[in-house]
Amino acid sequence: MSALSHRTGLECYASHSIQFELNGQRQALDVLPWTTLLDLLREQLDLVGSKKGCDHGQCGACTVLVNGKRVNACLTLAVMCDGASLTTVEGLATGDSLHPLQTAFIKHDAFQCGYCTPGQLCSAAGLLKEGRASSADDIREQMSGNLCRCGAYGNILAAIEEVVQAPGEGAA
Amino acid sequence: MTPFNYARATNVDEALALYQPGSRFIAGGTNLLDLMKENVIRPERLIDITRLPLHEVTTQADARVRIGALVSNADLAYEPVIQNRYPLLSQAILAGASPQLRNMATTGGNLLQRTRCYYFYDTGVPCNKREPGSGCPARTGLNRIHAIFGASEQCVATHPSDMCVALAALNAKVEVKGRAGARVIDFADFHRLPGDRPERDNQLADDELIVAIDLPAEDFSTHSHYLKVRDRASYAFALVSVAVALKMDGDVIREARVALGGVAHKPWRNAEVEATLVGQTADHEAFTAAAQALVKDAQPLDGNAFKVKLVQRAIVRALDEAVSAGARS
Q1: Residue B255 distance to chain A (closest CA, Å)
Q2: Does the interface predicted TM-score (ipTM) exceed 0.90?
Q3: What residues does each domain of chain B span?
Q4: Are the beta carbons of B322 and B223 closer than 8 angstroms?
């Protein structure tokens, strides 16, 4: 609990002090219990790469990596991330060197409006770590949690497939 | 979301001690937080149980497999002992949700997810499951996705899980713990039919926790199949689904389990029909007869009569696949 609190009518709700590693940096902050990880990233930490599409876990635009696993940040409470290691789209590149997925997305023009792209990239990064996709069909199925309303699926698939097939990547 | 307080437990007894009326336990949160955003559920306090030591899948001395309630759906589906000995369960889990949700959602939480009935989610309309006694617009409204078996005047909702359909076919057991002690519930008895208390989905008391799921040692790994029929190729709830587990002796069926999903308030089984398959040659004729017998009691609504035919065909195909699964492996 901490100094930050939220009063509604008769009730006073305490905030909680949490710490986590975000894109390689330690963070210590106070959060109210109902703050989702997505709202914390966007509203308190100004990391607006992760997008709020549906806010119900159906579109995948908010996908981030928590302890290396892809999750929907809109259905994750920030307070429950205490002690976790988080990677958002802002943390995929190493300095000025883009992540291979980012390079492939540019090469294959794997977006139109770009709103779903940060979620697609983080989800694909999770897919690579899982190492269970070797064919285009595997990638389609394992990217089913990320919708693209522009319908750039063909190019998204080509971009991810290129990285999956690259030496040292893809299914173990 | 409506404001709430938060507490974190580190062991089962602490979590149970923290419980008070108005509290809810949270683990994966994939359904609970969604329902809280829609104001369908408004807990006063969430008790975070994700740090309880219930993350292991263990093979017991008698070859039963015990799945900790907090094992994620993804970890369970890819667990070697599940893939090798209970491929039906692995298939069913991977047929559900998305990779992100399977990374978050837990084994215990999967059992406790609520129906996806549109009217249950819409706080602007009555729903007996959400507000007991308020009415059921689904019975005469949009009911394409609703139940054809075991529904009541008060509720025609279905249970949305894929995993639970496989657990029903495998005769799993649910280990629960409350302040009053521990108990074990047969999977068939865990979820309820709606009757006149549709607000209760299952037998778990509000102050009890699921701690583990037990899988019997018996081996259905050679002849099993999970078939899911839905509106798109992936990431959609089942219109109907079928979990089949067979024991075969040559072409003859020695034991048959057929559990149906998307058709009732709980995974649907019919022991009498399963018994009629025993001793029969595993052919199309036997499967078609069993499928017909299974839908004898179906009571479709205006919008879901198609499920009666669909589920029969799905049953026949799932049985076919389960028989030939052994031939391929």
Answers
A1: 33
A2: yes
A3: 5-50, 223-328
A4: yes
